[in-house]
């Protein structure tokens, strides 16, 4: 009886995955993308929860790839401000390390993957100062900027569209 249950569960899972992949190939963003050739976005990353932050780092990778698949060249910049900076150090404080351990490694891996995609990533020096992060310990894929808000204003003035991620 137990084998039958597991077998049935496996079959249902496969059916769901198959239907999802079929449905997702039919779903697109045609109306929003219209004749767009390049999609410029600046993501404001201001997240205090490590698990949520890691989730959004993965979502942004999917957004990048989704635009490519729909014929639009993504031109993304991410600006980390506020409590997000706590998770972007090679030497987090003891409390952050203890509370988030393995998740910090996932975040670091996702930051690397984002960089490999060609996504620029900036981190705010005001925030690193407020949260006591030594700038010498920042993940190497990050570019330290004086003020994340100034960076956001500058990118928007250059035509990038703000995507706030809280």
Automatic annotation (TrEMBL):
Matches recorded under SUPFAM superfamilies: DsrEFH-like
Transmembrane segments annotated in the record for this chain: none
Pfam families named in the record: DsrE
Superkingdom field: Bacteria
Alphabetical keyword list: Signal
InterPro entries named among the record's database cross-references: DsrEFH-like, Sulphur_relay_DsrE/F-like
Protein name listed in UniProt: DsrE/DsrF/DsrH-like protein
Organism: Thiohalophilus thiocyanatoxydans
